[in-house]
Write a structure and sequence with these properties.
It is built from three helices and 20 strands. The protein is mainly beta and about 240 residues long.
């Protein structure tokens, strides 16, 4: 099963999006997780009135309607694959068509565009043109005690190898498991910090490392407020920390 290019977490670029009629969303984050011939989708919408709406659905590329939770006047969604980088979502309310979304992923797979039309809860015809940009997540594996010390201090200045090299080593989701195997085998009570790369600004550099691949390196301390999530890293039977990201 090849990976759907929508898989990952995306943030709405409000300034480059248009909502007619308004109001526009204050912010929106969408996470797509792949399932066989389909997607599990979780959306958090920060509305203009200050409220937050969480939506979720699992649908398959078979054109059949599947339940949608918390989307205004939509009860079901159906999906169709158009091409590798393009699909369509059709929204219905108890069998009545209320909306259509064409999703197109950019060639570099770092953004996607939605052209949505339909009828809102006020009976108004709407046109939404929305640009979403991919949130690149990076990960730091470290002992729980080191994370607890960083929380107390407000910053993580790095492990011994980080201090020696002059930067804090991070891994992408695709690199993290190999990092755990090579550098943390046999070490219990580890945690994995998740950080949005963009939140670290210009201090984060992408530089060649293992196998010539580009790895994220942070030149400076990590402010703990940038940590989005903390995960466990239990050891398997061979003593290898298991990274679930």
């Amino acid at each position: 099963m090849s990976e759907n290019p929508l898989v990952g977490t995306w943030r709405l670029n409000v300034e480059k999006s248009r909502f007619v009629p308004g109001p526009a969303h204050a912010q929106q984050t969408i996470t797509f997780a792949q399932v066989e011939n389909g997607l599990h989708v979780t959306t958090t919408i920060h509305n203009a009135d200050g409220t937050t709406t969480d939506q979720h659905y699992t649908a398959y590329y078979d054109g059949k309607p599947y339940p949608m939770a918390n989307l205004n006047n939509t009860t079901h969604v159906a999906m169709h694959r158009i091409s590798e980088l393009e699909d369509e979502r059709v929204d219905t309310n108890n069998g009545v068509l209320v909306g259509n979304r064409l999703r197109t992923v950019a060639a570099d797979r770092q953004s996607y565009y939605v052209h949505g039309t339909g009828v809102n809860t006020r009976g108004q015809f709407y046109v939404h043109k929305m640009l979403y940009e991919k949130i690149v997540l990076i990960y730091k594996i470290l002992p729980r005690a080191a994370w607890q010390a960083a929380q107390a201090a407000g910053v993580f200045k790095g492990a011994a190898i980080d201090l020696t090299d002059g930067y804090i080593h991070f891994s992408t989701a695709a690199q993290a498991q190999e990092t755990a195997d090579k550098h943390f085998r046999g070490q219990a009570d580890l945690v994995v910090l998740e950080i949005a790369a963009a939140s670290l600004g210009d201090a984060l550099k992408w530089e060649p490392s293992r196998g010539g691949a580009l790895f994220p390196h942070l030149y400076g301390p990590l402010d703990v407020t940038h940590v989005r999530a903390v995960r466990e890293a239990p050891l398997d039977a061979q003593g290898v920390p298991q990274i679930s990201v």
